[in-house]
From TrEMBL:
Enzyme Commission code(s) on record: 3.1.3.-
Domain of life: Bacteria
Record field: transmembrane: none
Organism whose genome encodes this protein: [Clostridium] hylemonae DSM 15053
GO molecular function (one): 5'-3' DNA exonuclease activity
InterPro entries with a match to the protein in the record: PHP_domain, Pol/histidinol_Pase-like
Broad enzyme group: hydrolase
Keyword Hydrolase in annotation: yes
Keywords: Hydrolase
Name this protein carries in UniProt: PHP domain protein
Keyword Hydrolase tagged: yes
Length: 510
């Protein structure tokens, strides 16, 4: 068997097109060779459905090996593929245009895409990027992809402690330049305990052997904004409709469907880089009550990251001031090789910068996600924190509620290690901040303590803000809180408008 198709992609191409092809007899392996022009980049997604209508491959074209394989097991099936028999019958090849990228191309944006399907690879063909030992999908779903072979309760570490990870990462399954294998080597070098792959509109179907805990996620990506889903056990049902209408006017309705499914299935929802350049969040009518997390630090090495990250932190403070319990997380959003730097950057973009730390009794996917949803989280760069929060003889973690029936004093202690200089530490309480005095207690170790008072029947929240000597971001610790508050703000648009008006009137941006 040997069949080829050629497609031209430009700014006017329909967002979805494809061809069907016939496999005359069952195969051991099906090879798909994808060819694009050198500067074509991630112009589109390739989807393969087998003779039974099941998805057998989903991948963003442009990065990784141009040779893709579907075989009987995960070790001879490419990333994004579903292992199993390659049966005889009518198969379907679908191409979805990645309009966000195509519209950024100069001129008419035209490029040529070729897809060759064969039962044997050519002798000099490159090695496919195989899934690895661990398969997460069986392929037995009704045409959709389910993580029905992923073990959510597997324990990776037994200690009760803070675990470091990254909630926003990319590999060559979408538009990252690293293979999964290399990404895991970098993760280990950054001392990561867990890693959440969040590819653009595609999901991983398995993973390589590694000591780093990989937890399924996805970055649902449209021209109107990007959001991450955590703890996904399947491909979101509305995702094919989003892909088929990229750049259209209906993606808002489909994004709403994604969020409704996420709420129903208990997935975590995070708005990514909400104020970053052309990738800012534009779904203005998003209900604030549906947001679980806000990415307050996205790839701090990126050219436009500084101002947008500080705005995200301030925005989250305003949401807490209005009574919303939305937790801040970080994401490296790393796409690059370790040798690549963004313009003006002093460091490479790498998974684990920033690190997002989650406190849990022991490290398993289920435990980590549960602790994350409770806000037992802090985000940092180049340093780690030890926290001791006590009130009335009870210890608390970031994200916890402190119930008080009378005036309650909270003792908040912090130890900061590894920054390489004396940090600046502030307590931010109800948007008012005050500096915490530090003492040096060891080589590159600084400690400080604050006392705050909580009153019954009042809404209080308090978090730590850590900066380096230049005032740049070093750490964000999620708030503790007490009481309740009726929300004044209802939508993302209302909250942004309110923040910008208040900051303009007050003239003080913390």
């Amino acid at each position: 068997m040997d069949k080829s198709f050629t497609f031209e992609i430009n700014k006017h191409t329909e967002p979805m097109f494809g061809e069907s092809f016939w496999i005359p007899q069952s195969l051991e392996r099906l090879y798909i060779e994808v060819g694009t022009e050198e500067d074509c980049g991630p112009a589109g997604y390739i989807i393969l459905k087998d003779e039974g209508g099941h998805i057998r491959l989903q991948k963003l074209i442009g990065y990784g090996s141009p040779l893709i394989c579907i075989g009987r097991g995960p070790c001879d099936t490419s990333i994004g593929g579903v292992p199993g028999s390659v049966g005889a019958g009518r198969w379907e090849l679908i191409i979805y245009i990645f309009t966000e990228y195509v519209k950024q191309r100069p001129g008419d944006g035209a490029c040529t895409l070729t897809v060759r399907l064969a039962d044997m690879a050519e002798g000099d063909a490159p090695r496919p990027d195989y899934t690895g030992r661990h398969c997460w999908v069986s392929g037995r779903g009704d045409g959709e992809l389910f993580h029905d072979m992923y073990d959510w309760n597997k324990v990776f570490r037994r200690e009760r402690r803070w675990y470091k990870g990254d909630f926003h990462t990319h590999t060559c399954l979408s538009d990252g330049r690293e293979t999964v294998e290399n990404a895991m080597k970098k993760a280990a070098d950054m001392d990561l305990d867990f890693y959440v792959p969040t590819e653009h509109n595609v999901i991983h179907t398995g993973w390589v052997e590694t000591e780093v805990m990989a937890v399924p996620g996805i970055e649902v990506t449209t021209e109107q904004g990007h959001c991450n889903l955590f703890g996904i056990d399947r491909m979101p049902e509305a995702l094919p409709r989003i892909l088929a209408h990229m750049g259209g006017t209906h993606t808002g309705a489909y994004m709403k469907e994604v969020w409704e499914e996420a709420r129903k299935r208990g997935w975590g929802i995070s708005i990514n880089h909400p104020f970053l350049h052309i990738w800012k969040w534009k779904y203005e009518e998003t209900p604030l009550g549906q947001i679980d997390f806000l990415e307050i630090v996205n790839d701090p090495t990126y050219t436009y990251a500084g101002k947008s990250n500080w705005k995200a932190i301030r925005f989250l403070d305003w949401l807490w001031q209005d009574g919303y319990k939305i937790y801040g997380i970080g994401g490296s959003d790393s796409h690059n090789l370790i040798t690549e730097y963004y313009e003006g950057a002093r460091e490479p973009s790498v998974a684990g910068d920033p690190g997002t730390y989650v406190f849990t009794e022991e490290l398993s996917p289920e435990n980590m996600l549960r602790a994350m949803k409770k806000g037992h989280v802090y985000v940092s760069r180049h340093c780690s924190l030890k926290l001791n929060i006590c009130a009335g003889g009870v210890s608390y973690l970031p994200g916890d509620e402190i119930v008080c029936e009378q005036h309650t004093e909270v003792r908040y202690c912090v130890k900061i290690t590894g920054l390489g200089e004396e940090p600046q530490v502030y307590m931010v309480m109800n948007r008012v901040r005050f500096r915490i005095e530090l003492v040096r207690s060891g080589p590159d170790v600084y400690e400080g303590e604050a006392q705050i008072g909580l009153e019954p029947d009042f809404w209080h929240w308090a978090r730590l803000d850590v900066r380096d000597s230049r005032g740049e971001f070093a750490a964000y610790v999620n708030p503790i809180y007490s009481g309740k508050k009726e929300h004044r703000l209802k939508t993302f648009k209302e909250a942004v408008h309110y923040m910008e008006e208040e900051e303009h009137d007050q003239g003080n941006i913390i």
